[in-house]
Design goal:
By secondary structure, the protein is mainly α. Helix content is about 70%, strand content about 0%.
Length: about 110
């Protein structure tokens, strides 16, 4: 169950939806591109930490290659703070759910 949830997050949400939706922004320069990249880095960091207990060696290697702010990076993913669900963006979650369903329907 846990691995399926993490797989769905990596494949369906990050790869299929987020990366596809930021492609036009990546072709430009400016604050939108910076914001998109920061969001991507934040999601990858959290996703690697969630995956770490099941794939420690792979996640450690990828974590070390991810660009971090030096003062906020742990020396190892094994001792990094585990992500917590402390933020709530109800409107954004509803919009993202609508976008996800739309993307799934288009693909099918």
């Amino acid at each position: 169950m846990m691995t399926q949830g993490i797989y769905d997050f990596w494949y369906k949400e990050i790869a299929a939806i987020y990366l596809e939706s930021i492609k036009p922004v990546m072709k430009t320069d400016g604050p939108a591109k910076t914001a998109a990249l920061n969001t991507l880095y934040y999601c990858l960091d959290a996703a690697l930490k969630l995956l770490s207990p099941t794939m420690p060696y792979l996640t450690e290697e990828l974590y070390q290659r991810l660009p971090h702010i030096p003062s906020q990076m742990a020396k190892s993913i094994c001792i990094a703070h585990f992500p917590e669900g402390c933020m709530s963006f109800e409107d954004a979650e509803k919009q993202m759910e609508t976008l996800t369903l739309t993307a799934q329907k288009i693909r099918s």
